[in-house]
Amino acid sequence: MNNLTLFLKILLSDEFVFIALQLVLLCIVLYASLIGRKRIKKHNASRVFRVKYVFLSYSLLSASVVQAVSSVDLFADSKLILIIANLAATFYLCFFNSWFRLILERVVLRSEQIA
After folding, report:
1. Structural contact between residues 51 and 105, judged by C-beta atoms closer than 8 angstroms
2. For the segment 18-44, what is each residue's pLDDT rounded down to a tens digit?
3. CA within 13 Å, CB half, 68
4. Contact (Cβ atoms closer than 8 angstroms) between residue 68 and residue 85
5. pTM of this prediction?
6. What gap in Å lies between CA 87 and CA 21, rounded to an integer?
7. pLDDT score recorded for residue 13
8. Using H for helix, E for strand and C for coil, what is the string for 60-96?
9. Least C-beta-crowded within 10 Å: which of 28, 49, 50, 98?
10. What is the DSSP letter of 12?
């Protein structure tokens, strides 16, 4: 029982979760830039996705990224570099990558149908 609680304490620590989130963001950016762009066909991509939804999703993602970096003291000396890199990655995903914008559009449309 003691080993299980120690394992859960390490697994749910701020440092481990922060590193896992950074790796997930890195994998999404790499997938979107290398493979995701090729998987979108021209006729599947929507022609118009409202700008307010793109800005809303970017603002929510950027606020969560900045909060995640500022709440962890793991990289205290290089927080500014991490914040700028994460904001650049979310900016690229939201505004320049059609694969990720298609995912955002699906999420927004589903949330509008629920509400």
Report:
1. no
2. 999 999 999 999 999 888 766 665 545
3. 20
4. no
5. 0.79
6. 14
7. 85
8. HHHHHHHHHHHHCCCCCCCHHHHHHHHHHHHHHHHHC
9. 50
10. T
